[in-house]
Amino acid sequence: MWLKPEEILLKNAFKLWVTENDNDYFVLQRRRGYGEGAGGLTGLLVGTLDTVMDSTSKVAPFRILHLTPDSQIYWSIACGGTKEEIVKHWDWLQQNIMRTLAVFDSSDDITSFVQGKIRGLIAEEGKSSMVQEEDPERFREALLRFHKWFELPAKEKLVTYYSCSYWRGRVPCQGWLYLSTNFLCFYSYLLGAEVKLVISWDEIWRLEKTSNVILTESIHVQAHGENHYFSMFLHLHETFLLMEQLADYSVKRLFDKESFNREPSLCDPLQITKRGLETHARSEQFRMFFRLPREENLLEVHESFLWVPFSHFNALGKICLSESYLCFASQDGTQCHVIIPIREVVSVEKPDSSSRSLTVCVRGKRALRFSEVRYYERLAGTIRSRCGIASSPQHSASTEVQPISRFRDNPDDVTLMVGQRDSSKAVSTEALMTVFHPQDVENLDPKMLKEKMKEQSWNIHFTEYGRGTSMFFTKKTRDLIVRGVPEALRGELWMLFSGAVNDMATHPGYYTELVEHSLGTSTLATDEIERDLHRSLPEHPAFQSDTGISALRRVLTAYASRNPKIGYCQAMNILTSVLLLYAKEERPFWLLWPSVSGCSPTTSTDRIIGALVDQAVFEELIRDHLPQLVEHMADLSFFSVGVAVLVPHAVRQRAAHRERPSTWWTAFFYDGVKAILQLGLAVLGANMEALISCHDDAEAVTILNKFFDSVTNKDSPLPPTVQQASLSNSDRSSHATVDISELIRESYEVYGSIRSEDVESSRKRNKLFVIQTLGDTTKQKRGGSKFSASQLDDLYYLFKRQHFLSCYWMIDSPALMHHDPSQPYLDQYQLGFQQFSLLFSLLEPWAVCSASHSLSLWVCRLIDHNQDGLVNFKEFCSALDIFYHGSFTDKLKFLFKLHLPPGTSCEYFMKMSGALLTFELPEDGVIRKSPERGRGKVDLQAYLKQWQDEILKKEETIKDLPRINQAQFIQLSKTMYNLFHGDPEEEELYRAVARVTSLLLRMEEVGRRLQEPASPKKTPPAPPAGPPEQGEGEEQREEDSPVSGEVDWSFSFEQILASLLNEPKVVFFFERPVDADARLAHARAQQLRPRAK
């Protein structure tokens, strides 16, 4: 390739280059130790030096230098990996440059002309290049080494590379780590010892930072049961974060396709760059910290001071600006932070240019003063432009209801119910608690007085720190949450802390539209909702009336329509009932999303991956914070299943009942999943002695169940009737009650050091392990296969990699578009025609078959039982099991069925290919092959009939096979000829098949004459008696169809089997043992190379 001209003072520095050709202006050189005379000590030393110094000469040992006339200065202008490649560049220079150089008189003009010409060639190549890095020249050289060393497809996108050491045992190997979109690669060459490592991101089990006595700090990668350690990075933390992102990207590609639609930087694997990944990570962290909608992206960050009125000093921190929000967080993140929606900004002023300050005025007569902003003018201009966008008709609806400025004075009037105008007929506008439990102002009992005191404390806090979306969040805010939130403010604060207030404000009228659209529809979700409506807090009067039941129905049905992947699941009715008690009807709808998805993103899906991930995270926290419990439980497996799963879910579900959510749900909306984990640890800590004394998981679960039954809220203002219903428990009297507020306070005091960032990092780390473990355990359940456990593991690895290969470099691959998360885990990996053909050609026992492509497509048609154009792992194993371990009869039967209708015709493949190309996703973007949990009617009778057919399905016998006609028999003969191609006994096998076909034809002719002696017959054409011509095996069946007017004839499978059993050579060929291990090893080594070619 052409290189950016670089000056070289010594042509033969250290005698490392040998001149192959030269003229007056150019020199072609070869790196010593490569090519002719390579090897020996010189080759080892030069190779080691090139690898350690990251020299392009390792993969491009040829170069062309430009010689400035009358000077000792040389310029490198081209390099090549082979002599043919560098000679092509040399010839181009001879034909296009040499004649022109003779015209120039000045040597400087000659050099300038050559440099300009080379730069022009590089720029022309760059138009179609994938290189989008800060240093494109150096990155192009690294990309050349990457593809040369690892022989990956040209479409594989290199993201970045680092110098590091790879540890083989206790010996470090200095080399280079290359991180691409789909692979982690390492290369080292030291004194003849070459180390080459290629690991796909979707094969990684663990990815973590570790340290020990030998390695102070390293990155640990576990894949295929092997541990790999990389150390001596210049920026280890940066490298690890990027590796973590790429591994997480590979997981999301399969299990969270919706993320790609929302993230332009991730949707195209060919456009992913290091800068894009870093930007995406910053935006993700920004959204998580400030609890912002998923559509927000971090645009600008500015260091500044913010005047904090309640503390009377300037707080140092960072201004973070996104499309719709202006946020500020103090330097340590705990002192204070504030979120200002752009829609709330009234004006931006620059009062003092000397202090580089600006003042942002928001509605409600409030202002925030930022000082020492380096680029304050640019920031002010950006905010003003964003305000102009925010005042577009899309957001102007928020000012049509009532002025937002009144929110500070009377929040119940405005309540941020944007878009609820004209919806009063269908949507309730009051919280159920205010309707069914109005407060008696004249007669206040002690509990109601305490509620009033809490409300007064919050009002003082609002006066000092602000109220609504631009309120300051400080340590005092969390202290008030722990003490308790009065029921009059719960709906407002839950919306604020969860960020749901922003979702509702930016989607005016969305809930009303969903209600009108979803009511009256009939789905599995709506059926389940109707069954559970009257089981939702039946002791509460609000849900003994049609008002509460109707509101609950509307919210649950609208949410199931919005999120069909989850639809409706158990306990959502109770959770929504509690939310409806304290919030107006539209608010619970927006609160359900952070409530369900915020706890665990995939907990409520069929795969339960999220639940297993959170279980692993909780186990880590138990080891860190409760070591005495871990020491007692030497085997934490049963304890984690019985306790680690129970605690987080019991906290959510039991806290959803009656009055216990008052404090807990506010803490959850403020701190997210961290609140669940903290409270779980506090529960285990409170029961430490009892848990240490238990002997099994059942006893531990019993202890925790009794503990949760004893949790109450002593400050509950509910009426006595509801209190009695909530406390009715026969065992309650025998256990001391535990106040939920005290438990939450203890969780913050003892375990408050847990950070949300660490929890998210642990989730990503454990997600890799959970997914790999899930696949590793479920693939062993595939019974009926004669493959050994290790062979099945290798086969699954190859199939899974081939599935991901179809997704690596294609945005709209059939396997990715038709991915169905409702299917069992192993059935989610599927191959289309092309991918199946590539993998089958590597594993078929007849490696030299001359019609391998056609045979693989016919096999794909036969084993594709549901006719969807995709083959899953079970179907793939069933076919290979016959080829590897089947008897002669089984293999012949399989080949016979390959040629039955629709047989080898192209109709099926054209039909399925057209279906895949014209396929349209459902409205929700989720493909399903099982009954939906979301919208749309489901034909249950069709599913029941399908299940009944599978149960009644009997094993097929040879007598059940139909007869094969003339064209099909001729094609079967050609297929066997192709299988014999390249065999040492090829000629004898050809003759044996010819004898069998001739015998069958004579038998058919004699049979017809005996049946109809008076009818004249035409002798059917005999199939070829020798091997087919090149390419004949891939002809279409139409060319072999009988001529019009010929008499049809056919054979049964029994006739063909009986005839071939008389040919020992043919029987031995098909019963010859297949070395499965060798074929699997060959496939592993060659799987990526067909794409590279």
Automatic annotation (TrEMBL):
Residues 1018-1027 have a biased composition (Pro residues). Residues 1009-1045 are annotated as: Disordered. Keywords: Calcium, GTPase activation, Metal-binding, Repeat. GO terms for cellular component: cytosol. It comes from the Eukaryota. Pfam families: GRAM, RabGAP-TBC. Residues 484-672 form the Rab-GAP TBC domain. SMART domains: GRAM (SM00568), TBC (SM00164). One of its GO terms (molecular function) is calcium ion binding. Residues 861-886 form the EF-hand domain. GO terms for biological process: glomerular filtration. PANTHER family: PROTEIN VASCULAR ASSOCIATED DEATH 1, CHLOROPLASTIC, TBC1 DOMAIN FAMILY MEMBER 8B. This is TBC1 domain family member 8B. It comes from Gadus morhua.
